[in-house]
Every structure is written in structure tokens, then in C-alpha cells.
């Protein structure tokens, strides 16, 4: 039976440090309406969507405060309530990232899954792989990446969940069939930006049978891993950043036989901080099936069939048949590198 | 200081079930000489290099026997001794795969690293991720993949090692420097064919600071994960198999900041079993820097600088700084998929 659905990535172009928050919110609502008008049932927004990507700035506690949404239920935040109300009225599911300050004062780089069917947030993810450094670089010309300073590492793990209301009710619980694999509501996993570069994030979801990985990101338009060349050609550096972005999504979607939807904050913030676009939808064979054309506000839509996930999960990547966990101990017991001794 | 070396992949074209073993051996020796003449210090050969890829056949124990090398030291096997003697006389290191029957009668899909400097095998790897099925398919037209029937899963784990004699002696042990990361003899890890599709194989080596992953393979020229379409276009299927091969090498080399060298058994065995070529050398940023042009016997050579591995290992993929093992437990404790309950 068909498990088709229509999904979208909402790419968000330039947001400056001094962009008006209400104006930004209207742009997001316009993207939501555009996605809904194209028949999308689920739309993925970027990381820290409601403001510019502030971890690039060195900020005082007071300056920092304005970038965070307070409290435990983002849908009730006055700043952004209209966004979720619109999703509800359009009956469209949303995954969206924001800077979260919990009721106990803990800061996280967070995203939520808002279910229109349920009328509430049904899953929350807090970014686990915070990149960058805990303190600003000594070099005043370097662009900082202070997520380790401004956020705590996510404490919710990688918890896949079922998203209700996206596939026909007839495909829900079939009590006559003991093997429920590949049935029922879509199995969804969320990650944020740098998480997507780490195979561990994907495998944790893959082991839960994930069919759809959702990932918002802010990715600078130069690859810092470009041999560390200070005189790097700007366009080559941007191609390199795109290359790695695409590589990590295509490989990990393939190796876990799942679709992935990624949504960029893109453009040129403050007239000087460039971010790649490349919002995309990738299939379980690792092919990019839809991709943003530019770096502005843009909706990317594709119809997908979750049934396509099954083939890989039952053959090449049938984990139960092929994985050899007796050789994987190091992966979860050892954080850093231990080299073989010098000869 | 420079840690440059010249490495090669020796791609081996068609070998039929009835190919003469002595003739095949001479082809391998020719490849070895060609690599040496181009200045290669290390050359990687395919999986089960000395014969055709026999796990595609349903074989009796007697028929099976002739494909295996007996005993624990491959270099002393009369069938292949000349190959290692040639490597010794050319002073070239070799990684080569073969079907191993140990002195205790256990069958493995194995490869060894032969060090010309040491004049012996200094590391052995036994394939961990055996693909395919334990018994033949019911469909007599299907091509079998009986590695699970003919081999035991590798029991040596993923053990990285240092390969001596490849970089200048001046770069060896520096007792004045407590941090030896990125110094000394190259850190090498070996894997075989299907292992390369699994991020766990690469990460196990990455956690040992691997700089050079060596991988021989036999990969059919159609991707079984192509949506399971029985009427798949032949050329599209071959492109798909190449696409996945390239994707897994490029991503995992990037995500572990290492070079990789992969060597194919390629061509059209028995006039009907097609295998992809695509033997290649990939750099730590995920770029293929050298690649076989065809599907016949061919040597692919590149000069590499192990110093290039450092940048990624110290920034984006600085495991000690960024990995969050408290969220990875499932990866080494749970073999198969456990889906979230149906709603």
C-alpha cells in the first residue's frame, strides 16, 4: 500500500543582526503558506530560524538574551505564536529550529516537531554535536563559532518518533500482522546542522528504523577544512562547503535507507557573513531529488514514497543480519583518538 | 616536516572460474612491477585477488577447497610465494586479499599487509561485514552472494597499525614531544569490500587516528538497492553501483580525515558476471584524486601527504572535542532495528 507524502524544505535567506523580528516572522509565514499551497504536508525550517545565526558574534549576556525563546513550549511564545497558529490553520506539520532557554535557565540549540493533527509539539531535539570553540579566537579577523559557549550539548538523545496524520489511516496499526516494520505512521528523526556530518547521529536514528531525517542548518560558504589555505579561492571554497554538505546527506541517507530533508539559513548576513543554500530532499539511495536553486527564501517540494526505504533496510543495510556490534565497542566507549604507539 | 609518500591501487581485470592460477599470478606480478616502476611505495590489491570471486557460485566442499590458501602465513604458500618474493625484491609494500583457510580449518575472507622493510606480513585483517545470504537464492536466475556460507565473520577486529619504512626516518619517534599525534610512521587500517559501506568500520579506525585506509573489493556492476526494479536499465544500474562506491569512500574519508586507497577486481567474469572498476585514491577532504580509467588490469598512482590529514582531525572532526559518546550507546549495544511503537 502506498505510503506517499509531499514534503518541503523552507530555505530562509539573509537575516541580519538588526533585522526586525516581526518582519522575519512574516517571511517564515509566507514560506509556510507557499509550501501549503504546493500541497506539502510537512515543511522543515532551518536551525535558529527566527533570528540571524548569532554564535558568530561575541555577545554580552544581555545581548545574547534577545536571541533566545524562553520557556518550555515554543508555541506559546508571544514572539512566534503566530507562526504555529498559521501551521495549525493550514494543517501543515513543521520542524523548526530556535535558540531555547528553558524554564530552568538552560540554553540549547533546539528544534521541535509541531504536528498539525495533534495541534502541539510532539517531539523536541536539542543539538548534540555543537561545533566550534568555547571561547573566541585570538585572531580578530577570524569568524567565531561560539556554540560551545552559548549552548549546552543536547540532553535528549536521538529519539525517533512517529508523525501522525501524514499517511492514510488505513496504514495505521495492523493487529493481524506481527511484523510492523515499514508500516504505520512515518518514523522521523531530527538533527541540527553539524550533527549531519557525524555518522553516529544517523546510525542512532537508523537503528530506530528512521524513514525521514529532518535537519536545519547554518553553514558558512567556505569550508574550514580546505587544507587550511589562507589564500583560498572564494568560489572554490564555496563549492567545497556545498560538496561536503551534499556528501554527508547523500551518504548517510543511503547508509540508513531513509529520506532526508535539509533546510538552510542562506544568504549574506550583515553584508559579510556568507551562508550556503543547498536546501534539499535526498532519497534512500542517496540521490538528491530536489534542491534549492539559490540562496534566498525558497520552498523546495517533493513527493516521496516511504515504501522506497524498505529495499535497502531489507538487503544491503539489513542491520539485524549484517551488523557486528562485537567489533563496535570503541565507538561508544572512547571519545577521542588513541593512536597506535610509535615504532 | 613532509610526510609524503607515493601509493597505488592495482586494479585486476577479468578472472574466470577456469582461469589458470599461474597466469593470474603473473598478471599480479606485472601490476606490482608497473607500480614499482612508477615509484609507488605501497600498492593495494583487490579482495580474493588470486582467483575469481567464487562466492557467486554454489560449490561443493571439494570445489570450494581450491579457492583457499591454506595455513597461517600466506607468504609461504607455494601458490603465491613468488608474488611476495617479488614485492620484497622491488622493496614495495603490499596489501592483498585472499580466501584464507587457517591451520585450524577456519575459513575467512582475509587481507594482509606485507612490509618490504620487515620482509614479512605485519598485519592481517579478516572481513567483518560479510554481505549476502547463508544459503543460495530460490530463484535460479539470481546471482548468489554466499560469503555468509563460505566464510566466518572476521575475528580480528579493526586494528590500525603503523607501516614502517614509508616516511623518512627523521619523522620517527620524537621523544622530546609528548604529543605524537600526526607523527611517525603512517597509521594504516584495512577493510574489505562491503566493510567500506559501513561507517562503523571507518570510525573504529578513525578512533585510532587512521591516515590511510586500504580496501580491496569485488562489486557487481548493478546496484541491488536500485528500488528493486526488475527491468532496470543496465547502464543506469552500473552508474548506480559506481555512485555508491564513490559515495562511501568519499564520505568516510572525509568524516575520518584520512586517505583511502581502493582496488577493484573488475571486468566480466565467465563472460557474464560484471564487476565495476573505479579503483581510486581519495583524500582526507573526500575528493577522489586518482581513479582507474577502465575495468581491466590497471595501476592507479598518486603522491599523498599524510600531513593533510591533520587539519580535519584537529578541527571539524576533532573527536576528543566534539564526539558525545553518551548518546552513542545503541550503536554498539543493539544489532538490529527497534522501531518506535505504532501509534
Automatic annotation (TrEMBL), chains A, B:
Kindly give the SUPFAM superfamilies that the UniProt entry links to this protein.
Carbon-nitrogen hydrolase (SSF56317)
Q: Which superkingdom is the protein from? A: Eukaryota
Keywords, in A-Z order: Hydrolase
- GO MF assignments: hydrolase activity, acting on carbon-nitrogen (but not peptide) bonds, in linear amides
PROSITE patterns, A to Z: CN_HYDROLASE (PS50263)
Enumerate the Pfam families for this protein: CN_hydrolase (PF00795)
Query: What are the CN hydrolase domain coordinates in residue numbering?
Result: 5-306
Its protein name is CN hydrolase domain-containing protein
Q: Which organism is it from?
A: Helicocarpus griseus UAMH5409
Amino acid at each position: 500500500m502506498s505510503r506517499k507524502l509531499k514534503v518541503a524544505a523552507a530555505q530562509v535567506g539573509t537575516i541580519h543582526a538588526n533585522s526586525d523580528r516581526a518582519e522575519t516572522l512574516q517571511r517564515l509565514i509566507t514560506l509556510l503558506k507557499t509550501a501549503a499551497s504546493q500541497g506539502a504536508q510537512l515543511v522543515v525550517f532551518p536551525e535558529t530560524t527566527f533570528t540571524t545565526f548569532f554564535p558568530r558574534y561575541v555577545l554580552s549576556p544581555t545581548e545574547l538574551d534577545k536571541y533566545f525563546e524562553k520557556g518550555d513550549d515554543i508555541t506559546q511564545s508571544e514572539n512566534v505564536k503566530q507562526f504555529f497558529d498559521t501551521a495549525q490553520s493550514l494543517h501543515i506539520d513543521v520542524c523548526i529550529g530556535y535558540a531555547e532557554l528553558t524554564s530552568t535557565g538552560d540554553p540549547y540549540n533546539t528544534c521541535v516537531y509541531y504536528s498539525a493533527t495533534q495541534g502541539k509539539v510532539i517531539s523536541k531535539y536539542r543539538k548534540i554535536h555543537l561545533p566550534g570553540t568555547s571561547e573566541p579566537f585570538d585572531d580578530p579577523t577570524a569568524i567565531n563559532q561560539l556554540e560551545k559557549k552559548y549552548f549546552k550539548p543536547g540532553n535528549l538523545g536521538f529519539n525517533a518518533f512517529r508523525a501522525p496524520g501524514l499517511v492514510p489511516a488505513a496504514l495505521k496499526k495492523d493487529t493481524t500482522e506481527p511484523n510492523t516494520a515499514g508500516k504505520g505512521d512515518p518514523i522521523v528523526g531530527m538533527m541540527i546542522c553539524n550533527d549531519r556530518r557525524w555518522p553516529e547521529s544517523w546510525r542512532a536514528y537508523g537503528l530506530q528504523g528512521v524513514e525521514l531525517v529532518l535537519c536545519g542548518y547554518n553553514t558558512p560558504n567556505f569550508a574550514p577544512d580546505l587544507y587550511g589555505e589562507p589564500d583560498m579561492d572564494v568560489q572554490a571554497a564555496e563549492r567545497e562547503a556545498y560538496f561536503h554538505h551534499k556528501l554527508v546527506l547523500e551518504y548517510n541517507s543511503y547508509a540508513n535507507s531513509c529520506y532526508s530533508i535539509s533546510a538552510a539559513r542562506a544568504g549574506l548576513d550583515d553584508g559579510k557573513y556568507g551562508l550556503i543554500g543547498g536546501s534539499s530532499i535526498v532519497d534512500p539511495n542517496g540521490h538528491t531529488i530536489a534542491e534549492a536553486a539559490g540562496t534566498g527564501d525558497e520552498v523546495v517540494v517533493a513527493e516521496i514514497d516511504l515504501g522506497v526505504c524498505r529495499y535497502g533496510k531489507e538487503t544491503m543495510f539489513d542491520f539485524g543480519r549484517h551488523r557486528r556490534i562485537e567489533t563496535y565497542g570503541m565507538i561508544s566507549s572512547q571519545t577521542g583518538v588513541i593512536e597506535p604507539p610509535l615504532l
